[in-house]
Batch of 4 targets.
Target 1
Amino acid sequence: MISTQRDTFDPHVQDRLLIVGTQWAPSGLVDQVRSRLSDWSVSVSDTYLKGIADVARQRVQTMLVYIDPSQTRLSRAIAGLREAAGDEAKVVLCCRVPEEPAARQAMAGGADDYLIFPFFGHELEQALGIESDGSEVMDHLTSTAAPLRKLADLLATMSDTPKAMLHCAADVIKEALGATGAMIVVDGATATAGETVTKPVLSVPLGQGVDEAGPNGQIAVNARPEGAYTPGDMDALTHYARIIRHVIAAASRQRHWQRLAVTDQCSGLANRRYLYERLDAILLEAQAERFPVTVLLFDVDDFKSYNDKFGHHAGDAIIRAIGDLFREHSREQDIVTRYGGDEFAVVFWDAEGAREPGSSQLHHAHAVLDRFVESLRNVDIPEVTEKGGGKITISGGLATYPWDGSTRDELLKKADDALLKAKRAGKNRVFVIGQSEDDTTV
C-alpha cells in the first residue's frame, strides 16, 4: 500500500506533480510517471522558464525536472525552480545514463535527488518522498530474485553464440514477468522461451527510450497463468529490454574485437595467434579420435624483390591474392592463416573424426596444392603484371601428425625444415618431411 507524506505539503497542492523540460525528455517519460502515480495530478512544462512560471501559478510543490546537458547554466535553472516552489518543495532531476554527470552537476542548484530513466521498481516513489508500507518492496524483491540470477546467466553467455544469448534473454523475460512464453526478436533473429508467442499480451521495442546505437528488435510475452499484468509489469519489461539491449550490444562489440585480435589486416586471413589456438585444439581432438593432421608452411619465392621493384603496395596485393586463392581451393574446415611476413600456414584435418588406416589426407593436401599452384600461374595481380613482373611461385614444407610430431611446435618445426629444403633445392616446390631434395612435389 502506498501513501503520500501529506504533512509536508500545502493541503491545496498535495498530490500534484509538475514535469519540467518535456521538450527534451524521451518518449515514454510522461506516460510512465502518470502510470505509476495514477492518483496524482500530473502536468507538464516543456521548458525550464515555463516551469518556473507554472510552479508559482499552479502552486506545485513536487517537480520532476528532465536534464538537457546542451542547455547552459543548468544549475541556475534548477535554482530558479527551487526558488519559485519554496524550500519545502521536492525537486527531483531526471536523465538517461549518458547524462548522469550533467545531472550530478545540476544538483548544485538545490535539487533533492536525481533518477535515471527509465525508472525501475520503486525508484520514482522513493525519490519523490512517497512512503511504502514495505509489502510492495518485499514482493518486488521476492519476484525479481530469480530473474536477477537469470541476468547473471545472460552476462555469462556473452562469449557464446548470438543464438544462445537470445534464448537466455528470452528465458530472463519469461521468468521476470511470470509469463507462459516470451519471445525476443533482434535484427531478424528470433528466440523463444516457454510457449510460442502468437498473440502477445505485452510488447515493447528493444531498449525503448535509449537513443544510443545498438541492436533493433522487439520483446513480447504471452499471458500469465493467473492474473493480469499491471502498469508496473510494463515498466519492468521496458527496463529488462533496456538491459538486454545493452548486453547484446556489448557482446557484439566483444566478438568484433575478438575477431580483430585473430585476423590479419592485410590478407583477411586468421593470424598466428588463431593458428596456435586452433592447432592445439585440433591435435587434442586428433589424439582422442585417432585421425591425422597435416601442416603446410609455404612462402612466396623472392618476395623481397617484389617489394623492392614495385613497392610495398605490390607486396600487399600479392599477399591478398594468395590468401584469396588458397581459401578458394581449401575445404571449409581447413585452417588457412598468414603466419607472418610472406609466410602462410595451413592445417588440413578431417572434422568428421577418425579415418580408416591408409588415410588419404596427405593426398588431399597435395591436391589442394596442385589446384592452388595452377591458379597462381594464371592469376593477374595488376600491381605486378602491369609493371612487367614475372609469375609468382611458392616453396613449402609438409608435416603430418602423428608421424612427424605430436605437438604444435614439433609439427611446425618439421614443416619449416621441409620448407628450407625446398628453398635449397631451387624453390618453386613443396617438400614432405623425409623426402629427398631431388624429389619435388609441386
Target 2
Amino acid sequence: MKTASSLLLITVTLYAAAFLSPPGLQSFGQEASPVPENNIERLDPRINTIIPTDAKLEKIADGFAWVEGPVWNKEGSFLLFSDIPNNAVFKWEEGKGASLFLKPSGYTGKESFSGKEPGSNGLTMDAKGNLVLAEHGDRRITRLDKYGTKTVIADRYDEKRLNSPNDLVFKSNGDLYFTDPPFGLPGTFDDPEKELPFQGVYRVSPDGEITLLTNEIKAPNGIAFSPDEKILYVTDVSPERPAWLAYDVNYDGTVSSGRVFHDAAEFVKTEKGAPDGMKTDKRGNLFGAGPGGVYIFSPDGTLLGRIKTGVPTSNVSWGNDGSVLYITAGAAVYRIKLDTAGPGF
C-alpha cells in the first residue's frame, strides 16, 4: 500500500452554456441526426426483457473528435462527457443540446501537448455529487467540486507518476477504483516519461491511501462493479488478449481469481474498436462498449445481444430515471430507452 499525493487545490474555469468555444476547439453539433436501421442485434431470448421491441437508438450530439466517459448528473438532470483530443468536458441537456462545460479537462501544461489524447477520459460522480475525472495529460485523478475547485485524489504510486488514468468507479464505501494504461502518454507504452514499469488497476481509500490491485493486465481500460460489488469487471484492450475480465472482490477491497468473462478476439477481427468502458444494470447484466457498439452480457457471461453504432464505441452511462442508456461512440453521443435500469436509481 502506498499513499496518494497530498491534496492540492486548483482553481479551474467552468464555461457556461452560452460561452463561445475557445480557439482550437473542434466544432460540435447539437441536433440529433438519423441513425441506421437494424441497430439492435438479438442473440438470446433474454435480450427481449432488456431491450423493448420498439426501442430506438437516437443520436443526440455529433461532430466531436473522440468522446468518452459519459456520466449523468442527477441533481442537474444533465449528461457530462469527455472529448479527449479537445481537452474538454461537454454538457448535454434535454432541449438545449451540447455546450462546453470544462476546458482544460485533463492537461493544464503551458506547452502544447505532443500526443493525441490530452484531455480527461473517464468521468464519475462521488457521493456528494462532485465530478471526478481521470486526466490523461496531467496523469492524475481529480475531484471538481460544485464551486469550481479541483482537488488531486491520486497522481503517484510508489513515488512514481501514474501513466494516464483511464476509467474509474466508486464502491459504496467510498473507495475509488481506477485503471491506468499509458494511452494518454504521447509515446504510450514506450514513452520516455513513463515512470511505472507496468499498467495497474488501483484502489484509493477515502483517506487517500492507494493500493495496487493488479499489474498483470497488459492494457487495463474500462472498469465496473456488479450490483452487489462482489465482482470487479475490467477490460483488456491489448491486441494479444482483448477481453472483458472479471475479478472476485475480497472482504478487504482487494481482488483475486482474475478470469476471462468474455473473449473479444472474434469481435475485434470484424469490427473497429476494442472492449472499453462498461456498466452493469440492477439485474447484473453487463453493458460493455466495444467494437461497433454495446455488447450486453448476462451475469454468466452469455452474449445476449448488441446495440450497434457501427463505429468504435467507448463507454456507456445510465441516466434520467435510470432506464436510459447513454453511449459515447466515435464523434457522437447516443441514447436508448431500455426495460432495465442502472444500480442506484
Target 3
Amino acid sequence: MLKILKQHQDWRKQSLNLIASENILSPAVRKALDTDLLGRYAEGTAGKRFYQGLVFFDQMEQMTTQAFADHFKASFVDIRPISGAVANLAVFSALTSPGDTIITLGIDGGSHISHEKMGASGLLGLNIHHFDIDANGQIDIKKAQEKILELKPKFIILSGSVILFPMPVKELKEACAKVGAKIVYDAAHVFGLIFSGYFQNPLSEGADIIVASTHKTFPGPQGGIIIGNIDPELQKAIQRKIFPGITSNHHLYRIPGLYTAFSEMKKYGKQYMGQTIKNAKALASALEKNGFDVCYKQKGFTASHQVLINVANCGGGTDVAKKLEDANIIVNKNMILGDKSALNPSGIRIGVQEITRMGAKEKEMKTIANLFKQLLLDNIEISKVKKQVVAFRRKYQKVKFSL
C-alpha cells in the first residue's frame, strides 16, 4: 500500500492536473489537518452535542462558522456537510417532499449529478424539469420565467459543474417570488471566485441559499458548506437534515484546515483568483488559435476557472481524456450542450486553479495549449509529449498564495 501511495504521489508531481473540481492544499492547511481530531467524533451542533470531549473543538467550529457568516454577511452558515453533494441533499430535502417539482440546468447544460435523477434529487423522488439553454450556453431567460410561473417549483437550482459565466439570479428572482420558489445556487466550482469578489455574489443578487464545496477554487480540505439569509424555521430544518438526517460525525479534522484556507483566501484570494481567471481566458484563447473547437467563443470562452472544448473531431471526450492522461495531462471527459451520453460525451473540461496556485501565468497557458496541439492535432508520439510535461512540471512544485 505504501509503495503504491508513493507511486501515486511521485506521478502526480510529474503530471499536469487540470481537473476543474480539484486543488492542492498548502503546507499550512495540511499541518492543520494532521491532528488529534482525525480520530474524534461529534454529533449535533456546537454547545449541543451528544458526545463529551468537544470543549475546544466547539470553539473551532464556531470560529470557522462565524468567519464565513461575517465574510458573506449571512445569517446562516453550516460547515458540517462532508461534501458539496451532501450539502445539496440536506438543502433539497429540507425544501421539498417526494413528488415536488424543481427546475435545473440539466447535465448537458451544466448541472451536477446531485441535481438530477441519478443523484440526490432522484433519491428524494423529485419531479425534475430543465431550463432551456441557448447557443451561448446561457439560460433562455424569457422561457425560464414562463416555466417557473407555469410549473411553480419548490426551488430552482442555478450553477453547478460546468459554470463558465454568471447565472441570471436577478432576472429570475421576480418569477420565483411570485410562486414561492427558492433560488439555490450551487457554487461548488466557483466558491473561491465568489469569495474573492470575482464572480457574481448570489446572495446579494437574490439567491436564498448557496451550497458549495470547500476544495475546488476554494483551496481547502474536501467538504461542503451551506450559506444563506433564510428564516429560522428553514435554518432548523436544514440543520435537522444534516444531523440526525444524513450525517452523524462530520469529520472534525477538516475544520481547522478549513479555517486556515479561509485565512489564506482572505489574504491572497484577490491575487489568486484574479490570476486564475486570466489564465483560463489565456488558455482558451491559445487553444482556439491552435485549432481547437473551444466552446462559447462568442462569449469570450469563459469568465471562471473552467474551459470547455468540443473534441468530437479528435475522437470524443473519453478517448481524448485517456490519451492526455497517458501523457501525464489530467482532465475529465464532459458533456457539452446537445450530448446524450455522459459515458461517451463530445467534450473535455479543463480547470486551471491548481496549476495557477503552483505559479503558472498566461505565458505558461500558451505552453499548455501547445502540448494539447502536439498530442491531439499533430499526433506527436505520446512519450515525447509526456517528457515535455514532466520537464514543465518540474518548474512548478511549490504552492503559492499560502500562509
Target 4
Amino acid sequence: MKPHELKELGLDEVKLRLEDLEEELSNLRFQKALGQLNNPLRIRIVRREIAQLKTVIHEHELGLRKMAGETKAD
C-alpha cells in the first residue's frame, strides 16, 4: 500500500483494513504450517502492510497525522 493511498483513507477504514490483514496473516501462517502456501513472500508483504497501518494509527493518536475527512479545529 502506497503512502498516498493511506493518506486518502479515514481512520475507520484504516482500522478495518488492519483487521482484514491480520486475519489474512493468520490464514497464511496456517497454510504455511500445512504446507499449502503457494506464495511465501505474501507473508512478508502482509506483515509490512500491517506495520504501516499501525504506524498511521499511532501517528494519528499522537496528533502527527490528520486522516481524510477530518477538519482542522482551531
